[in-house]
## 1
Amino acid sequence: MLAALAFNAVTLSPLIPWQQWLLWSHPAPDQRIAVEMANNEIRLPAEGIQIQTGTFVEFVATSKDVTYGFGVFRPDGTLVFQMQVVPGYENRMLWKFDAPGAYTVRSTEYSGPRHPEMYVRDAIHVVPEEASR
Amino acid sequence: MKRIGWLEKWTLRFAVMGLLFLALAILEGALMRTQLASAEQSLGGFETLLMRLRVGGAEASPATLFYAMLTAHPIVGIYGFAYMLVMGAFYFLVPYVLKKEIRYRSLVPVNFWVQTLGVLVAWGAGFFVLFNGLYTLYWPLPVAYDRVPLVGSIVFGAGLVVTELNVLLFVFNLFATVLSRSASDPPRPGFWRMLAATIGITQNLGITAMSSAVGPRRRAEELPVFIVAVGRGSIDTMINAVVMLSAGALLLTFGLPALRGIRLDPAMINPLLYKNWFWWGLDMIADGNVLMYTAGTWYLLVPLLVGRKLYGESVVRTVILADLLVSLFVWSHHLMADRPQPFGLRLLSGQFVTWGEFVTMGLTMFSVLMTIWLARPVALTTPLRFVLGSIFGFLIGGMAGLIQANVGLNLVLHNTQWVIGIHAHTQLLAGLSMLLFAVVYALVPMLTKLEIRSRRLADIHFWLWMAGALLMSYAMGMAGIRGMLRRTLYVDSPFQPYMIVAWAGGVLLALAFVAFLVNLVWTLGWSNVVGLVLPERRGEGEPARA
């Protein structure tokens, strides 16, 4: 029982990095990025996405037809975060990247047989905070 | 084999049909695993053959085939394999434990045939008509006819409706059996108090005296704990059936007019509300009846196998009732990745209530293991070995579930292979399937007076199945934490080595299943197996009492 309490306490605490801002500090985002999904396509801002490490960015994902997912993946394929993109809602996720690199966006929810095609390689460019100054 | 009774024969028929559905689920699994493990996603000769049987199969892409199979797979595994075995086992065990007859005997063959039909229709919608809405049926995908075939959607909906109506009939018959009484029974309290006792409420509210007017006081505790667990689990089964029935009816409501060109607007149904309703009902299987029926079966089998009363029986009764709260309020752990879902629901229902299972299943396992421990020395019979295997499976799968049902960790685990691998497939293959095998190994001698023919084959079955289940689940889970999604067919995937290991696990499962079938047929004998598919001779079946 103690282990259960400890597990819940630790995973709700700022020891899990993203819980710092998702659960506790709720900072205002420095940048907002709109992601639109429709007809098995991911529409990202035409000018590309560039984010500085250490800043807060809010992804606002919407769907015009069915439920999709919005997942961000590191260059090594591991998952940074993901959320469902429910039609009729603004699906928001606040994030802070801590490592520069090119991140891939992929739909994380099945939306029909074309679902596996729904990814944009190197869609998000995260640069060091100093480099952009 | 001594001539077996009518009910025993039907129980064996349910078991055989359930195992045939398991064989089908294994076949589908093998086909999907081959696609996942093959870099080119090429279809083998067997798939090519199947393509010719499919409506529009010639034009279907590998992805369409994969997702149609993925839609059919859980329907066959749950409503075919697991439900058929549960129906057969409970139709024998409930009357056996209560020493009375099934209330409506005529419903037993009806349940058998209608369940078979309903599952085959829903499965056929995926396997042959290529309906690919997946079992999740997230609105409005199953009625988005630019992505799923209209006819497939209608056929799938019809299969769901038939299956769930049949499940409701089964639950009705179970409750009617528990609540029925023969002329020789002493008088007893009213219907509602007996119903409450069946699911453990009366005893736990302290209203323990069922009636003071009936000779020796009958207390709620006098209902065997197995019956209380079955009654409790059947509440979940009923809710699940109603919700899935509504989903099937919705598919028909949108699909049938569409056949005539009338398109209803899917936007009239809120996708998030639908998702909550759907998962509330669907989760009544995963976190409801599976756990309760499993607990009940452990409570029945283990004391029988080790010859000792269940340890902590009164606590267990309270646990059974407490688990109702878990079942009713735990659904939101499936919506943790849905940001519009209220945070309070994600945290309370999704995370904290899920930990309620840690308590209820933990106490259940503790009670069962203590019963075995206190009964030492214990002969490690085949059914007991499989019971222990099932406890191990639920332990591993349950712990994995607690890790993913977490508002923090779900961000990186939701919809990955972790969820479907090390959680779901461990629960299903090492937990639930091991338990159902234990039931078959225990029931066959009870039903037929024949001993299982080969202990060695049973051992091979156990170890190959356990190794296969763990290998497959572990490989999927490890791919998951490295970023591999579920429900996603990758091209040139870095996860291919994991999928090859998972495929090897599937081969072990198939070999284990063959060992099991050979042993079962060897035990029963070919003539008896053939006898199961023949109709009863006149006078062999007793007239229905209904």
## 2
Amino acid sequence: MIAQIHNIGEIHGTIRGIIPEIALFATTCVVMVLGLSPSLPVRRLCAPVTALGLAIAGVLAVTTTPETLGGTLPWLPQYAKAIIAVVGLLLVPLAVGTVDRTEEHLVAQGKIEFNPLRTNRAEFWAFFLFSLTGLMLCASARDLIWLFLALELTSLPTYIMVTISGQNPLSAPRSNEAGVKYFFLGAMSAAMFLFGFALLYGATGTTSLPDMAAIFAQRGVDPLAMIGMLLAVVGVSYKIAAVPLHFYTPDVYEGAASPVSAFLAFVPKAAGFLSIILLVSTMGWHFLPGESAVDGVIHATEEGFSLPPLLRLTLWVMAALTMTVGNVLAVLQNNVKRILAYSSIAHSGYMLVGVIAGPGESITTNGLGAVLFYLLVYGVSNIGAFAVLASLERRVGPSGEPAEIETVDDLRGLCYTHPVLGWTMVLSALSLLGFPPLLGFLGKLPLFTAAISKGEIPLVIVLGLNSAIAAFYYLRLVAVPLLDSPDPTAAPAARTPFASRVLAGFVSAAGVLVLILVANSIMRASSKAGLYRGPEAAIVETDGEHAAAQPPDAAH
Amino acid sequence: MTLLLLAILTPLAVAAVVSLGPANRAKDIATAGMFGSLLFALLAAFRYDWTRSGDFQLAGSLEWLPALGLNISIGVDSVAMLLILLTALLGPICSIASYTAITERVRTYYAWLLILQAAMIGVFAARDLILFYICFEFTLIPMWVLINLFGSTNRKAAATKFFLYTFTGSLIALAGLVYVAWFNATGVPAGSFPGAGEWTFDIAALQAAAASMPASTQAWVLLALLAGFAVKVPLFPVHTWLPLAHTEAPTAGSVILAGVLLKLGTYGIYRFALPFAPAAVVEYSTLIGVLCVVGILYAGLICWVQTDVKKLVAYSSVSHLGFCVLGLVALNVTGVTGSVLYMINHGLSTGALFLLIGMIYERYHTRSMKELGGLAAKMPIWATFMVFFAMASVALPGLNGFISEFLCLIGAFQADSSWALRPGPTPGATPGGLGPWFGLFAGMGMIVGAMYLLYMVGHIVWGPLIEPHAHHAHGGHGEASHAHEAHAPALPRDLNAREIGVLLPLAALCVVLGIYPTPILRVLETPADQLVVDVRSAAGLAPAGPAVEAANESQPQAAQLAEVNR
């Protein structure tokens, strides 16, 4: 019962569901050509056009995404695509100037001719957009094969982005090493979750996620399917940098240029979480018989509303270990990028708590909504920290190659030497720590409430203790820029010529402050995106008879 | 609500002005901001109807995150109002007291001082759990910066320890508070009181809901809340951050730390731990009482062997706040009233002691009792104040410390269920987990308190004159600091008008509260009584008792006398 395209109407419906992706893809094509133009002003259009494409895709995501694509999480795509577009828009100014800097410098001096074969700009921005397209496709996935392809479309460009981000003799070996490491481990994880997908197909005879959900609901979960699910979830956990597949994170983040690290901290992570939510929702929350769907939405307090025990245990252990490993190891680091890498691991652990809590009706009980909100919170806060690193550089080596700052000592007295960047770092670190009343706190609060409302008290305590451990290293990132005096012996770090990176940091820091005022509507949207519908309702939907279990507000 | 909001927002707005304005005017602007906040707090106090002191007045609510059940709602009862007044009063005092002590990074200093002021007032004014938590946590950052930048030698370690201790504790407390909110959302039938059965962080609703929580759950909630608040108080054995933080903090930081920040812990116990886990508090009051008494005696004995004057006063805070918590867990009107009064009195007298020690430190650059002695000969005005506030802190009858300490002790003494077994009338006795032994041992703490404070006063105020620069072992250091001081505006030997002006209001209040505490006791009695009745009835204490108890204690004075043995 592989999901087949039954008729023209369904093709039409599918295409209607991926209009933002189509817009992004079209932009990709344009950018690929623009970046090869011999005229510098035209080449420079790459970033603005990328931003324009993302903005259009964001608007399209909100306006055109139908809520009738079916599946157990029918409201997920719209919200997910909107936040992908927003965070993507923040990543664009940050990524300006990542590649071709030396090349363009020499061209501008007239020392070499512009040679389209030797530049990376077009590729970089095209891969940037490809990856985001893949991410959006993950959100629309209703089928295992689609999901696999979308995950790979998200990941493959990032391997290349990591590798080409090292642009001078100093950073190129590191980024090459990071790229290779990232690629091979990524391939291994892909093999793992693909094997898991195959087992799921073997167990259910379908690749359609809604069909699978219905089969699990009717027949229960057999061991083969469970093994497949566990392999798939663990394999996908590579994308979110969760234990046990977290080892690459610090090395890759350290080796890649900061803008690319920031990209890695959001895009694959979001893809991973969307996939995990979609996969788990086939098996979870309805596996015991006897529940009933009211308005198509299964209510959180009903009996039998949870994950299969083995899946829950796996996720539980993953969440607890991921938080703890990430936070404990981050304390030991001295390199800001490694700190942020380990903190990225820890944040995945926090978000897994929301997945374990599962869906609910309101943001306070909806763990999935909390995860989706936290993705935005994490994306916005994290970009600020990386933007600070990306905005400052030192001249090192005999030829004075620019090198990004990366150690904690490089941040000393930043609030005095570069106030905007210093305060960006302070606010981002405090927000990542979850310090009230900043955005990070509002992100953690729904995770807290959702987990408590599902009785996951031990997990909440692990989360609380981990936030306390996190204070050790985030506090350093606050103290060093804010309280220390600039190091008089070291040469001061200079700003990179790319002012837009500072802008990205500023917007992120402002977002950390301003979004707390408008968080209510975002929370409502994320909570709606995390609403879960029972498999019966979902299957009716995919068969094209979608009148039955429609909630009243679903636009059709 | 407007006045309270203004009292909170004025320091915040002025902090922005200070950090952007000229550095040489920063202290004046900051002081003006502090006075502005004090003015609004006073206006709020005038608007407050003290005859209805148990009600939350000047209340109001702004919608913030209704999806999470989160609102900016504020309001004060008499306890919160008095603590706000204490905070608002200490604000300008701290600002003025720092004029000569802080010469570098003045804008940073005063800006954070103002932000701290806003956060502290916010804690007391909050009627929403998360708003409370936000303000509670937010006091950490300014204090952390103040200690870290303006403290003495070991300041970084002290600041970090302070931050991590309190942050960890309050995260666990947050889990407990959120749990209560969840219980309210799911565990109580909707409509039984405003806010029941829905997600809200409204303190009144949660308080009503918590009463119906199972006792075993309450024990966990109490544990979680105490993890946050006991660290802040600090209660033995989680007090170890305090001496370090106090010793290293700048003078104003110590004053605020002792005067207000520690009260956030006792206020948290008063406002949340007791009403959110009534049955558990009743069950574990003996245990908490034991911790208090151990803390009182242990910290008192540590004080006795201190040579660093500031550390001595810091440890004395641990000892004194033991009385405060002891009064709270006595769970009778006497104890709770005394405890709240103690919060205010301790803020006045210990705050003043830290100011006095800061003044000495500014002159001699030492706080060691080995290098200081007989200063009465050189600084008579300083010596007068020192003796006065030490007496207030020792709880000399006639000064403010006495009445509150005495009430806490009486409360603990009376709070014993075994009184009921004794034949004959036992006036004032209430059922509870403490009793005469607690009164006795805590009373010994008063004696220890008198010993170490009088010993300290005897040494550095009277005794043979010792001044650091005459001390050979530290001669070089003394010279260096004097050479350094030559650039700074030289302070006169004895206190100047500014310093006297800083101390006088505190001294006046100490006398007023010592001689005539009745008005304050009267306004504190109503909320204390409400709390006791709520806790008792929620805990289902003594099947026949509660009704009689509640009826009796609603006329507190009468109840104290008319309580008869059952």
## 3
Amino acid sequence: MSEEKIKKIKADLVELDKLVAKLISEVGEDVPMLKKNLENIMAIVTYIKYSLGMDVESE
Amino acid sequence: MQEKVEFWEPHIENISRKELERLQFKRLKRQLIRVYEFSPFYRRKFKEAGVTPDDLKSLDDLRKFPFTTKDDLRNYAYPNGGEFLTVPPSELVSFHMTSGTTGRPTVGPYTANDIELWTNLMARSLVAAGVRKGDVMLNAYGYGLFTGGLGFHYGAMRVGCSVIPWSAGRTEGLVQALVDYKATVLSSTPSYMLYIAEVMEKKGIDPRQLNLRITCPGAEPVPAELVRKINNLFNLKERGGGTRQCYGSTELIGPGAGMATPCIEDLGAFQMWTDHFYVEVIDPDTGEPVGEGEEGELVITHLTREAMPLIRYRQRDIVKLSYISTDCGRDAFPVIQIRGRVDDVIFYKGTKIFPTAIQEILAKIPEVLEYQIVIDRRESEHKFILKIETPFPSDALAQRIATEVQLATFARPKVEFVPPNTLPRFEGKAKRVVILE
């Protein structure tokens, strides 16, 4: 995969991360299914960020 | 047949060593801050040692920080992570633990992020080993508190394999499942692989006729001779596969901390995923680092684990670490050979005997079906006995075994032959040392 494409994916992942975090805060505790599944999506996003080295890019 | 090299996450697996060190430093710094802030155990330990995360200015500075030992885990981590936890207990989604045969069990608690990390590291390991989407894996590691079963299960499903979650035991049924499902991958302890082949031969089924292409032994040392033996038993090379050992432990995360690629399986070695586990090799007596390629104790620091990160954990494995360049890539990740375990060392008449040295010798001798090391200390004159199970006992074989073992261990055993099928077989971790006191 080209550097340019990776850069684009990283930018989209940052947006995805923000979106999932926003959804988690919005659903609160009312619908456990939504909260737990969104948290699982967040765990997957967290690993992808590790894999792409995004966790250390801002440090 | 040449295997095609594939990567689960090529961007990180093909990172340069320099880039990897930069990544390690940033993650290490962050992890030290995390444990200092949230783990009462590490805050206390760091204060006693007079260090803070600010003292880490380079990777080598990690040596200023104190070691963590198995006793620390037994005393301060049981049952749910205790003083080691860096998250609220409500964030934990799972636990694994050791059997506790030598004391209180050692626990491994996981957050959702830890499970995701483990799943991906197992997937990375399996792909590095040559496992692919569409493979049928019979997983004969124990499911339950032991990490082997679920670790392989998570990773293989993520890769896209069909997993048969057999666990260990019911070996005759397992053999039938290998045949019926046309399993292409077998994961279990190496001892159990040998036993499975033995049961097949007794049933009149040739293990070489199975569809197996890859085996993933682990949870015990897998020296080069054992790799060759398993390859031959199941005819793996003919199908373009081989025997790729997996490394891990409950304390690390489970299996998936390291894996052999096709390029290094013949070394009886694996590559360690040091973007998530920072490694040091030290002299077990002095705690000082040893040089590349020298034997020493493996020390691990979690760089990304969340629930219970460990800093400078003494793994008790005696290893040799080196960096080599191969056609399988991943050159930034160290190649590690296990030479033995500190805990397994047998003290006999002033000599240290590593059971793995004996295992390596006996794996080369086809007449040996099984063996047991007996140290008899019941009388003032201690005895070192090697029970050898073979259908072909002879004085020449006894002499050969005694001499080769003496050359490797500096202690000459008394070789006693026993008939086939008399020594114990193992579905889980093998226990071939008996101490009589």
